[in-house]
Design brief:
alpha/beta; four-stranded antiparallel beta sheet; Arginase, Chain A
Amino acid sequence: MMSIADFFSPVENADLLNKENFNNAQLGRIIRIFSKTFPDLLDEGQKPDIAFLGVAEDRASVDNAGCTNGADFIREYLYRLYSGDYQINVVDLGNILPGNKVSDTYFALKTVVEELVKENIVPVIIGGGQDLTFAQYRGYEKLEQKVEITLIDSKFDLDQENTENTPLNSHTYLNHIILHQPDYLFNLNNIAYQNYLVSQESINMYDKLFFTHQRLGNLVEKPSEAEPIIRSADLISFDIGAIRYSEASANNNASPNGLFGNTACQLARYAGMSDKCSSFGIYEYNPHLDPNKQSAMLLAQMVWCFIDGYYQRKKDAPLIPKSDYITYKTQLESEEHELIFIKSKKSDRWWMQVPYQGFKSVNERYYLVPCSYAEYELAVSGEMPDLWWRTHQKLI
């Protein structure tokens, strides 16, 4: 691992650094904090599972100036929370300070994500504007893998007017992800969006590219419908503007409608539980708009839920050993493809097998896409699940 220590400023809050302020079960006593000496992330005896870090950058956050030092406020409430019934191995790396230019901050975050993910350490990033998602994504550029992104956002951050020369900011970063070369984006999911905040042109573009989009209304009654979409992602980016103003007011772009706080925590837990998720970012928290610190408390609880989910991972993907799974086969009368579904005995979670066109190797004939029991029921009834079709189109 190259040295990433130079990118970080240590945690300086004396109350957080004093372990005597916390009891043995609180995270403030358990989490290792960068205060004087940067932790050795390669020492097998010290290597963390999760690395918490802040990014103090808001210069490209549209209409939300002031979201630079949000991580410091969230730490105050995160450290007061109690550990679950498992052994936590989490390190707090401090904050990435803004560079001379925004691009310098992007480079720092890209490098940090790349180095941590290579070492199987999951970065939990607190921004800063959601434009930092572009740097989070670029952290996968040299990792020789296709990447799937899940965005939890009330809108699509796209500029439909000028896709070639659009300035990079928190409302246009998707242009830069989609058009970035080299192209290693496999799929893009946007969940919890509100239809009146998204143009039909943007929705049509998502459909044309076989991207996934799930409206807020689908999650109101059944938050569990988001679980397979979150489980499919390598990278998850959460704009707190997806949470309703009454639950999280510390965002200048907050809306009266949105996710409830408990649902936001549930989605964060799904992210933590996903064996595939290798980075998680929460963006657009503005402490200047949080006089009672209610939003900071909620985001701290979301981070706690991610950590809790991480330590509940079942490690049930990929399919090894096969005895841990049940295979279900369905045949559609009007289709040449046999639809095969896999259910984990450990977690009761479902996957679909989607064949590669001219399969890649003898040992890799299918792409496993996370799905729900509802997709299986649809196939049994004789209908082709839309998720299977969209995935198949990407593999052609």
